[in-house]
Design goal:
There is one protein chain. The chain has helices at 19-30, 50-60, 75-86, 105-116, 144-148, 158-164, 176-182, 192-202, 235-255, 261-276; strands spanning 3-4, 9-15, 37-43, 64-66, 87-88, 91-95, 100-101, 124-133, 139-141, 172-175, 206-218. The chain has 278 residues and is an alpha/beta fold. Strand 2, helix 1 and strand 3 (37-43) form a beta-alpha-beta unit. Helix 6 (158-164) crosses helix 10.
Amino acid sequence: MTYQNPKPIAILLAVYNGEKYLGEQIDSILGQTNHEWTLYIRDDGSTDGTARVIADYAARCADIVPVEPGGPNLGCRGNFFRLLEVVESQYYMFSDADDVWVPQKVEWTVAALRALDIDGTRPVVVHTSYTVVDANLKVLVQDYWKHTGFVPEKFYSYNLIALANPVNGAEMGFNHILKTYIFPLADNTLLHDRWIPMVAARHGALFKAIHRPTTLYRQHDVNYYGVAVGPKAGLGARLRKVWQTNRMVARKLKDAGWGGYGKYLWYKMVYTWKKRQH
């Protein structure tokens, strides 16, 4: 089944066992200053009360559409890509189930998309920074880019974007022409927030970074992914993690057709050098 969005913006929310925080995130989307969107939610076979939360909101708001209710469990990667596959829209934004959006997130993102998307013939990606918060929304890092000194504009080439991964999935917006290049997916486990920017860069996309946080990125005990904001582990543990992470990423990029381990090591050095430049 294909879902044709009657509005310009499709917000794609993938959720699994998200009952605890899902309502708060939906409320933050309902509170956006821009209302040109439809919220599409796909429950990935949750075993808690997630399906009930979705049904309650959908019954109250016509702009909330459950996608494939009762469908199979596809995993985090499969759930997001399934949403993108079946929803047709002019613009797309992804949403995690446990975050909270600032009221201007859609407004700022779509304004930037429209400014760059002149004739709809070139891929366009807009992305933003984010605020890291704990489970109770207490601020841990106000602006993650500023806190870490990260400058995403340095890494928009195809070879570097694969390593830097500057475009977080939940902070991303893009146009329909980019969707036409995303499928079929590579036969690997790259998530949407690495695969999509790589495809965009490969096809000459225009990238725009909005240097302000638009999401409260919640850290809790069941995050699928998270960021490190607490005390650092010991040197040995950190080195093991760096080795394991780089080996995993290199393998996934090789499987995706980006290049082999030699290329990975070279561009890892280039990435590290550029990251340290001021």
